[in-house]
Amino acid sequence: MKLDIREIPFSRFGSYFCISKEQDSGDIFIRDVHGGDDAPSNLFKIDILKDGVEKEFEVQASETSLKFSLKDDDEGYAEIIIPKEDEIHLEVQNVEFRLRATKGKYDSLMELEDGMYEYHIYPKELKLMILNLSGKMSVDAPWNIIGNDFIDIRMKSGQFVIESYRTVYQQKEYAPFNKGKEKIEQLYKEWFDNMKMGSTDYQPSLERAAYITWSSVVHPHGVLKEYAMYMSKLWMYNIWSWDNCFNALNLGKSYPELAYTQLKIFMETQDESGAYPDFVNDKFISYNCIKPPIFAYVYEKLMKMNDYFKDEHRLRTVYESTKKVMEYFDQYRTVEGRLPHYKHGNDSGWDNASLFHMGMPVEAPDLTSFLIRTYDVLSSFAEILGEKEESLRFKERADALFDLLMERLYDEDGFYGRVGKDGRKISIRTSLILRLPVIIGYRLEKSMMDQLVSDLEGNFETKYGLATESVNSKYYKENGYWLGPIWAPVTYLFIDALQNFGYQEVGNRIRDKFLDLTLVGGMAENFDPLTGKGLVDTSFTWTSSVFLLLLDDRTKAKDAHE
């Protein structure tokens, strides 16, 4: 694949290093994503010089190497690989490869031995060892009491290493550049072979999705005790609750241990109240927003996908953790006689959806539907685990919530929300979020589902799939985040419900539209529903994972038909 590092950062499985090109300035930076997306990530600006003069260069990027070549000199180049998670290796020939640090006040570079420089990066609590293995390296980094005024490093004619660590550098022998390149190529080939499907119709999307999921994983560090698949290494480099479940679902078939890890990260950081964090990275755990529960829904699918997940200990762990989540919503998000509520649009994941424009708190039919679905799944898990009394209790709780949902949030025009301490009926009903009760379609009367599906087709379905705000709504907004753009996880939920609750033709049609959409908009965070353009962060794992899941579904359906 020819990788465009403006849209998809160059990185590798397990690494916090990445290299990307800024959209506006066109500058290229070696970056580090420790500390999440609130921490500065740029480490060094990259330039290519010849005889001390900056030159124009071309970038040739693949999944495993990044090459900078002079436009007017085929023999002048610098090539980068990341053969190990914390090591960048460089090979430079007939040019100068310049790194200019984007340093802070106390950041400091010092020479420890000839060709061996240690760089302390204070805001990130990170150290780098910069080593000259076989070439020529010059450093200009004047000291000024508490740090260097600036740092300018130039490398030429040989091989170099930049290694990241937290406290102490361990001296070692580094593999030759060509051996490191062979190793990383083999590692990626193994991953891609496990992701590829039979069809070549979506080859460009498949290549992007496989690479993004592989390269967006980071290794255990700090708060993170397990390998974690970040949402992106471009802008949103955290692992988010709810969204992480779609990554786990995609990994379940070929990488069950890594899939389970994506759930385990949140079960191990679960608050004593029962709430999962909103997001986690190597440095921070945030409980600012609490997403709806879908772990049990996803785990039930994983059990059908791979026997690994049927292990009683793992099932018990998910079961007990999910019970605590449900207790949180019962105790801390429910007023007596009413339904559980959101305290912010971000709680739902639909940050600025029109449903939330009238204020907070909001009783929303999607949240109640997720809770009902979870209680129903917990009931089946309890049966498997021999907890018959709990199974009955969960079933009764689901029944009671469903009755209250229909009483408080449903009328002849469909579902709606309520807002404020007095639970006023929300008049705005143009958001796709109000149609998410399709996930409990097995409980709804056929006439209700027919109405929901007709509504989806008439008011939300576009050339590329389901808009999150009706395109006829006064609240619809181009590039409006949740006021129109198409999102992958939500699309998956609708497709799954439609396919399984009697509307397979509609579900398959929307599935195929989303697959086609990725050929236009790539693996972006979200998409314009009318043009298909990729919006916001252009390198997203949840989009990639949903694409791979839906492509697998299409391939299986096609094989079964043939």
TrEMBL record:
Q: Where is the Mannosylglycerate hydrolase MGH1-like glycoside hydrolase domain?
A: 237-543
Query: Which UniProt keywords are given for this protein, alphabetically ordered?
Result: Glycosidase, Hydrolase
GO BP, one annotated term? protein N-linked glycosylation
- Name the Gene3D superfamilies on file: 1.50.10.10
Please list the GO terms describing molecular function: Glc3Man9GlcNAc2 oligosaccharide glucosidase activity
* Keyword ATP-binding among UniProt keywords: no
InterPro entries, sorted: 6-hairpin_glycosidase_sf (IPR008928), 6hp_glycosidase-like_sf (IPR012341), Glycoside_hydrolase_63 (IPR004888), MGH1-like_GH (IPR054491)
- Spans traversing the lipid bilayer: none
Answer whether the UniProt record assigns the keyword Hydrolase to this protein.
yes
PANTHER family (UniProt xref): MANNOSYL-OLIGOSACCHARIDE GLUCOSIDASE (PTHR10412:SF11)
For this chain, the family text in UniProt reads: Belongs to the glycosyl hydrolase 63 family.
The protein's name: Mannosylglycerate hydrolase MGH1-like glycoside hydrolase domain-containing protein
